[in-house]
């Protein structure tokens, strides 16, 4: 009788990766790779740290010396923040009111695309109707249309409405002052939907089919399935997309300036930041403080939703 024995692998030995990607990944996970990553992160953060230090330095020092001289002659002041937030002059800042405008613009511009994209993603993934695939392809192709190409048609729609053969299908909006927020919300929602539907559709379509069929057997309707099953499962995806949309809208200048105007009633924070340096560009010390005022809210949003953001990026990468 022949006995076949196998030699167990020696303890501590590792299987060598056979692919190029595997070998690169192994090298990046070494101590040298980790050290290089830390070094790159530090170098990347140095300019931001210098901007933070400069925002607390007096004006004369900002304009005459570099921020690194702070460590040899440390002088701190809150005058820059006081000017950009509550300055009385028209060129000083007054960012507090523009800060509120940015919040008013950003929140609906994030919530509307999230709601519409989630509903559309569910319908395109789990409701059978004629032309569903063509609608999805059309939404997907809209992502390649540059935003700038839609600015003039949207402005024409808001100011003139839509008419065919002399018949007015939709009247002109003719909005003034704070009512122009509606135009910004509408524009941001339109620009965000193609990417939002595409991303959320990828998550919704990967949900277990057995789970959906079991819910239908129990008599659940589409609204109930969407509310009780789909929404809790795609929360990480919604958070990830919401963060991207929030950062995009909060940092936007072009769309808000065109559709909301540059007036004090509707202009966002980015419009005022572009004017902080003064007409001759000699008041740029205010930009350091203004920049950090502008990043406070996005930073808080990202840190509060970070765990959902990571889960959303990793969702679907592994099964089990």
From TrEMBL:
<feature type="domain" description="ABC transmembrane type-1">
    <location>
        <begin position="99"/>
        <end position="305"/>
    </location>
</feature>
<feature type="transmembrane region" description="Helical">
    <location>
        <begin position="134"/>
        <end position="162"/>
    </location>
</feature>
<dbReference type="InterPro" id="IPR000515">
    <property type="entry name" value="MetI-like"/>
</dbReference>
<dbReference type="GO" id="GO:0055085">
    <property type="term" value="P:transmembrane transport"/>
</dbReference>
<dbReference type="GO" id="GO:0005886">
    <property type="term" value="C:plasma membrane"/>
</dbReference>
<feature type="transmembrane region" description="Helical">
    <location>
        <begin position="287"/>
        <end position="305"/>
    </location>
</feature>
<keyword id="KW-1003">Cell membrane</keyword>
<dbReference type="InterPro" id="IPR035906">
    <property type="entry name" value="MetI-like_sf"/>
</dbReference>
<feature type="transmembrane region" description="Helical">
    <location>
        <begin position="32"/>
        <end position="53"/>
    </location>
</feature>
<comment type="similarity">
    <text>Belongs to the binding-protein-dependent transport system permease family.</text>
</comment>
<feature type="transmembrane region" description="Helical">
    <location>
        <begin position="98"/>
        <end position="127"/>
    </location>
</feature>
<protein>
    <submittedName>
        <fullName>Binding-protein-dependent transport systems inner membrane component</fullName>
    </submittedName>
</protein>
<feature type="transmembrane region" description="Helical">
    <location>
        <begin position="225"/>
        <end position="250"/>
    </location>
</feature>
<dbReference type="Pfam" id="PF00528">
    <property type="entry name" value="BPD_transp_1"/>
</dbReference>
<keyword id="KW-0812">Transmembrane</keyword>
<keyword id="KW-0472">Membrane</keyword>
<feature type="transmembrane region" description="Helical">
    <location>
        <begin position="182"/>
        <end position="204"/>
    </location>
</feature>
<keyword id="KW-0813">Transport</keyword>
<keyword id="KW-1133">Transmembrane helix</keyword>
